[in-house]
Design brief:
By secondary structure, this protein is an alpha+beta fold. The protein has one domain (about 5-90, about 95-250): Alpha-Beta Complex (Aminoglycoside 3'-phosphotransferase, Chain: A, domain 2), CATH 3.90.1200.10. The chain contains 9 helices and 10 strands. The strands form 4 sheets. A 3-stranded antiparallel sheet has the order 1-4-3, covered by helices on one side. It has a 3-stranded mixed sheet with strand order 2-9-8. The protein has a two-stranded antiparallel ribbon with strand order 5-6.
């Protein structure tokens, strides 16, 4: 079968180049399998075509262990873009900031949650009550309340089920928003949008790199970013879910 060609005549500068850089950076970790970049140029990217199959438990376990290896390859800082890429980065079609923070909370609260809140409010998808909870959660996150000693992980950054393609032996990753972040964020996004055999993925991940105690309870914290992104352009249901996740995050600090 032929390669996959994606084109956008209205693509912002660096749009597909950022995707290519992210894929290559993830692939260089020699962990989770990543779709190969065949060619990239302004407004166009060509990727290898993945021959998909139904997921099973063995493939899920292989993916979980490989994802931990990818995360362990690390990043220069929290918020750092992929490798030597110094251009813009995107999640879906939305731009988002890069950073070079030594602590996770300073980056995540400011550049992955707070950054999208005014846009969600302007879109009419985030109520004043839910926005207040989200801003309060950002305050705590940026103060370092949830920081730990984990080094910046090499994240896919947009790891919902649609960006996980299954083969007979493992999963293949596409469409990253790659950056340095916290390893629990990728796992939380898999949980948010549903992923087959998630329990097997997480168990294999934990066997490869033990997750810190309380990771399950921290899932709402790490779901704030994807929920904020979706609250910008996908309706008020995501704004409501964002408010709920923010209140659950605040409860963690009590």
């Amino acid at each position: 079968m032929s390669d996959v060609v994606k084109e956008r005549t209205d693509a912002p500068e660096g749009f597909f180049e950022a995707e290519a850089a992210g894929l290559r950076w993830l692939a260089s970790a020699d962990g989770a399998r990543v779709a190969e970049v065949v060619d990239v140029r302004p407004g166009r990217i060509v990727l290898e075509r993945i021959h998909e199959s139904r997921p099973d438990r063995a493939a899920a376990r292989d993916f979980g262990a490989r994802l931990a290896q990818t995360h362990d390859a690390g990043a220069a800082a929290f918020g750092a873009p992929s490798g030597e890429w110094d251009g813009p980065i995107f999640i879906g079609r939305l731009p988002q900031p890069t950073a070079k923070e030594a602590t996770w909370g300073a980056f995540y609260g400011r550049d992955r949650v707070r950054f999208f809140l005014p846009r969600a409010v302007d879109a009419g998808n985030l109520t004043a009550r839910d926005a207040a909870a989200a801003y309060e959660a950002c305050d705590l996150i940026e103060q370092g309340v949830f920081d730990d000693d984990d080094a910046p992980a090499r994240l896919h950054g947009d790891l919902w089920n649609g960006n996980v393609l299954w083969t007979p032996t493992t999963a293949v990753l596409i469409d990253p928003a790659a950056h340095g972040g916290h390893r629990e964020t990728d796992l939380a996004m898999l949980a948010l949008f549903g992923c087959p055999y998630l329990d097997e993925i997480v168990a294999a991940y934990d066997a490869e790199h033990a997750l810190a105690p309380g990771s399950t309870e921290r899932i709402p914290l790490h779901q704030l970013h994807p929920l904020a992104v979706h609250a910008v352009g996908h309706g008020p249901a995501y704004g409501s879910a964002l408010g709920d996740a923010a209140r659950r995050t605040l409860a963690l600090a009590r």
